[in-house]
Target: Homoserine kinase
Amino acid sequence: NEIKIFSPATVANVACGFDVMGFCLDSVGDEMVIRKVEKKGIHITHIEGFDLPYQADENVAGVSALAMYNALDVDFGFEIEIYKNIKPGSGIGSSAASAVGSVFGINELLGRPFNKTQLTEFAIKGEALASKCEHADNLAPAMFGGFTLVKSLDPLEILEIPCPENLYATIIHPQIEIKTSEARAILPKDVALNNAITQWANFGSLIHGLHTSNFGLIQRSLNDVIVEPYRSQLIPYYDEVKKAALHAGALGAGISGSGPSVFTLNEGLETANNVAESIKAIYAKTDIDFDVHVS
Ligand code: HSE
Model:
């Protein structure tokens, strides 16, 4: 009647796949303990790591759990303990990890009445509380693992994209906060046709590269001509970081979700570690605190 789960951090957008593409990190994530209790409803009983609301309908994990709970007809409830490791506002899917963790855990305790797509539908409600809009590009990889493509939101359709062996991500997180809602507000409403053509050519090629483990193609596809020019201005030393990462051998680099974290994809663990070191060297010369993960 009790389950402990790990809910992973995720990288959304992956350069050319704004709002549809994402991948999951295996080395960073939150933990939750969920237990079935007699008292009806969703009760958040413990939160560690960051200061977040205990009131279920004000908490991302609580809102998604409530959406699921209200779809059930049960005469018991659930307690949730949240051990939050992913800093809210860091750009690696902190709210998605919360939103997915609670519904995944409850579903396991109930013997899996819902499939992963249905669980993601509930999680979208929690994610919307945090980012003020419904998108699933962090939720889908947190729920399914690996790379995912959100084919459509209504109806929700998620595709699992294969992850080539020997592909590693390096994530650098400068300790500044960028709110997703603000990073969305600065984006233009319209896109020039020539940029759209470049972007969908790159995105299709990225998907093909992932399917065929074609690292050269992945490398040539990891570009974002639509969103990066606006959002990169919010991230200190972004151009230097990207240049250093590519120089150190990264296949490509981009903003993780809405930032401020920056991700790179790399062939091989050694390259991923070299990239981490070269980026560290840049922020180490500044007064910005940062941390780095290789996954
Ligand atoms: N696709 C979303 C964005 C992810 O870039 O705004 C934010 O978490």
Summary: The chain has a mean pLDDT of 95. The longest helix spans residues 193-212.
